[in-house]
Amino acid sequence: MADLRYDILGVGNAIVDVIAPCDDAFLTDNGIEKGGMTLIDEGRARDLYSKMAPGREVSGGSAANTLAGVASLGGHGAYVGKVADDALGEIFTHDLNAAGVDYATLPLKFGPATARCLINVTPDAQRSMCTFLGASVFFSEDDVDAEKIAAANITFMEGYLFDRDDAKRAFVRAAELAEAAGRRTALTLSDTFCVDRHRSSFRHLVRNHIDILMANEAELKSLFETEDFNEALSRARAETKVTAVTRSEKGAVIVRGDETAEVPADKVEKVVDTTGAGDLFAAGFLLGMARDLPLADCGRLGVIAAGEVISHFGARPETSLADLAGRKNARLS
């Protein structure tokens, strides 16, 4: 077995996030689905960008945010995802490596531009995302780094990447490599719209290739086509080794065989922006899993990381999560 160099290896859409405040009227006037993620083309992305309020531009993408959280918790992480050979691609690469994440995927040449996600945040802290996937969806089996997968305790895959067949095949290849190396795999369902588009593929992937399933309550119910959360959780318990479900202010529920851990949400003085809450929960939870902590301790790290990121704009932590976990007496090892 290869030497273990990484706690988590992330596989996902490499995206630059543009985050700005707005009101509900802006969403209505521009036909934006509140609280969801809508895929758009490059022309629509340019048009919306020109209408948005001044905001922040940071390297993002769900799994990349998770890996930045892992690094902030003191973990060792790597990432694979596709950017273009352009200015935004260079920004993404620099930002992720500067955050302490090993990222070296070759950029796409002579194709679409680097992906960007336009995130409008209403006063109730709901984020409504319009995403131009650009170069990110041109991730393929050629980009799967077998050496890094073998060196990672858990390979974490982002459901958003599933919009091209090449990416689906890359997912399966990554999972097969992880299994062959005696490592574990994790999948986040990403979004209810994503689940609706790829339900059958996700169900096959979960049954055959995934050790740890990450979802929020709505995504889990969508996956199993039920409005009953307890039924969805029961089916997840039967079909997965581990399932971790976030439930907003209700915290999280984690199941593994006959074991159940319910973790209350971490107290936050004011919720400013829910962007990245699930990504950062995954950071804490998966790092705990990589270090073989009890389920409740894994969940505790997850809610602490999520609580920090929803207290400010942006999907990356603004304080050391390792220090924060220490102040809250949460186990890191």
TrEMBL record:
Family: Belongs to the carbohydrate kinase PfkB family.
Keywords of this entry: Kinase, Transferase
SUPFAM superfamilies named in the record: Ribokinase-like
Organism: Hyphobacterium vulgare
Identification of the protein by name: Adenosine kinase
CDD domains linked to this entry: adenosine_kinase
GO MF terms held by the record: kinase activity
UniProt xrefs under PANTHER family: CARBOHYDRATE KINASE PFKB DOMAIN-CONTAINING PROTEIN, SUGAR KINASE
Residues in Carbohydrate kinase PfkB domain copies: 56-317
Coiled coil spans: none
